[in-house]
Design brief:
Length: 230
Amino acid sequence: MRQTVDELLREMDRCGVDRAVVCPVERYIVVYNREGNDFIADAVRAHPDRLIGFATVNPWYGEEGVAELERAVHKRLVGLKVHSSLQGFFIHDALIYPLMEKVQELELLTYFHTNTPIYAMPFQLADLAERVPRVPFILGHMGFADGWTDVVAATEMLENVYLDTSLTGPMVIAEAMAKVGPERIVFGSNAPVSSLEAELYKIEVMSLPPEARRLILGENMVRLLKGCGG
């Protein structure tokens, strides 16, 4: 809510970012899902060459929430953002199963916020990902801060879980690269809570091999989005 579409686009231009994935936040992710999804869909429609939209649905809405996700996809949103600690459920609770069935049917990419004890832990996401192996998951923030030590152990055997670089440190990213490979890591900024410029600088100072850098800063995400029709 603190960043307008125009402000984001200017920041992307300044930092050399071609495209960004955007999603609803704050009250829109907790209660007013439909309004938030419409806001994102309008932004994507206005800037189709720059923005890629993810919907959000609070699973407490049940069948109504499943219908909202389908509606959002018809408006050209291509993924789902879940923030269980704000929405009030454990990641792997049965409450989310109907939503995940629809996600699997629609072949959507999913992004889960982690790590906020006790509702959003890496092993909880691993449990859910194992139950729906055809759904690709992005584990947000690599479990930063309290759960980063669990991330590799929780996900290295799950081919459908990818790790997002936002908010976490270069040492954690380097460990993840060594254990799960750069093919399973995607760049994230978590803007405007974090700084797009700072998150990019963090990747730059790691002095990654050129191939790993290309994968993390775009190619992995392009592959995932193509897999879901994005």
